[in-house]
Amino acid sequence: MPTGLSLCLDNVAGVFFPGQTITGQLTVQTTKEKTFKEISVKFKGFSKVHWTERRTERRNGKNVSKTVHYRSSEEYYSSSYRVWGNGSESQLPPGTHNFNFTFVLPLNIPSSFESETGQVRHLCKAKIDVPWGFDKTSTQPYSVNSLYDLNTDPVAKHPIQCNEHKYLCCLWCKSGPLSMVLRVSRSGYVPGEKILINAECSNKTNSVVNYTEANIHQIIKFHAQGKTKTIDRKVAQIKKEAIPEGDDYIWSEVGLVVPPLPPSKLQFCNNIEIDYKFKFKVCPSGCHGNLDHEVPLIIGSIPLRENFTLFQPAAPFQPLPLPSTSYPTPMPPIAPSAPIGGAAPPAGFNISPYNPNIPPAQPGFVAPTAPVFPGVLNYPDLPPPSYNECMFGATGIADDSDDESGGKFAPKYASYNLSKGMAAAPPPYNESMLPPEMNNENAAFIPGGMSGQP
């Protein structure tokens, strides 16, 4: 029977914040005595970008096409140490062997991110050094969430509003106006929160409006070798039905839920940038162009304080007991933790007394199974979030795992649970936002007197 090697994090959610401590166990199973040089564990955080472009060149009077590769990478931390052995050949007895490990994450590291073109990954990798044979490895990815506090960004409170109209022309004929008045109370949101949309769409043209639509777009910029590649991904959408010619339609507090996403900017990463946009559009039939409005949107991980009451605490994880026998971690013992809020420890394996993720070791102590959310340090009244997988699902990490399992991984992000029956009050309707053509003859356009309610 081959040697078994596996990694298990005490934090079963697999989510951590910069400066927190990762703890877990490395398990080796053998049915007979084995000879190894050492067993080690390594923690690594890095980003990498890669894409290709086709380029045509003139050679010997002929056009020749070739594929050009663009690559870039960054390393945020990389530390390893032995949990067993000393580098010389030694015998490991048969049986199941558990080795504890502990690692403190650095402070200024980016959130996890996955896409086809670029990734930010954080991995724990165990390795058995087999003399005169193939090394045995096992990889455990984990999610890192860097905090983006919307309360520190004044733009997050800016309302989104517009008053736009256009005329549809066909040859020498000009129709009445196609108009929209849009109002969203603010520009900053967290995953799980609803963007409450208030919009009045008036179709005084001679054409049918096929649909009206609101969506969120994720704009990703990848940088490599002096070049930039931009990808636009639609991450959320609501579409409403057609508006007949001469009719109106109103969006009244229509909620567009923000899915699990990394925060805006992807701080501390220099080769991948992330921004978000909110788009609203009215789409007429035929060959006419859309009437649309597009503005920046900010996605954070700590909501605006005035909206804390909209959320309810996430359901807690149930602790699971650890195996009763294990090898001790080959490091100085963890001292009693200081009060939460002290200075963060240096990254790596030399643990200082500060350890926000682990209470003082006591008889019968069970390691935490969910991350301690750092947002409570500044906002004790903030309900803790849950942690949900990215909306794009899992991607393969075989190129970074170096082991037989390969496997897939979906990063998890802080996401908030809305309290039932609670919603932010819409902003007061401002009649002056209507186009001049609609102030008098279209009084029915005002909320409460409009046809086509969603």
Rounded mean pLDDT is 79
Fold-level CATH name of the largest domain = Immunoglobulin-like
How does the overall form come out from the CA principal axes? globular
List the uncertain runs.
Answer: 317-367, 421-454
CATH architecture label of the largest domain: Sandwich
Radius of gyration (CA) equals: 28 Å
Instruction: List the domain count as a whole number.
Output: 2
Biggest pleated sheet? 5 strands, antiparallel
Strand content: over 45%
Percentage of residues assigned to helices: under 10%
DSSP E strands, number: 25
How many distinct helices? Answer: 1
CATH C-level label of the largest domain:
Mainly Beta
Helix-strand category: mainly beta
Through-space gap between termini: 63 Å
User: From N to C, what is the helix and strand string?
Assistant: EEEEEEEEEEEEEEEEEEEEEEHEEE
Ordered list of secondary-structure elements with their pairings:
Blueprint: E1 4-9, E2 15-16, E3 21-30, E4 34-59, E5 62-92, E6 95-104, E7 113-114, E8 118-129, E9 136-141, E10 143-144, E11 160-170, E12 173-184, E13 188-189, E14 194-203, E15 209-224, E16 227-240, E17 248-257, E18 272-284, E19 291-299, E20 311-312, E21 386-389, E22 395-396, H1 398-401, E23 408-409, E24 412-415, E25 417-418
Parallel strand pairs: 2-10, 13-19
Antiparallel strand pairs: 1-3, 3-6, 4-5, 4-8, 7-8, 8-9, 11-12, 12-14, 14-17, 15-16, 15-18, 18-19, 20-25, 21-24, 22-23
Family: Belongs to the arrestin family.
Region (Disordered): 428-454
Pfam families: Arrestin_C (PF02752), Arrestin_N (PF00339)
Question: What does this molecule look like?
Answer:
The protein has 454 residues and is an all-beta fold. The protein has two domains: 4-147 and 313-417, Immunoglobulin-like (Sandwich); 150-300 and 433-445, Immunoglobulin-like (Sandwich), CATH 2.60.40. Helix content is 1%, strand content 48%. The protein has one helix and 25 strands. The chain has one helix at residues 398-401, and strands spanning 4-9, 15-16, 21-30, 34-59, 62-92, 95-104, 113-114, 118-129, 136-141, 143-144, 160-170, 173-184, 188-189, 194-203, 209-224, 227-240, 248-257, 272-284, 291-299, 311-312, 386-389, 395-396, 408-409, 412-415, 417-418. The strands form eight sheets. Strands 4, 5, 7, 8 and 9 form a five-stranded antiparallel sheet that branches. A five-stranded mixed sheet has the order 13-19-18-15-16, with no helix packed on it. The chain has a four-stranded antiparallel sheet with strand order 11-12-14-17, with no helix packed on it. Belongs to the arrestin family. Residues 428-454 are annotated as: Disordered. Residues 174-304 form the Arrestin C-terminal-like domain.
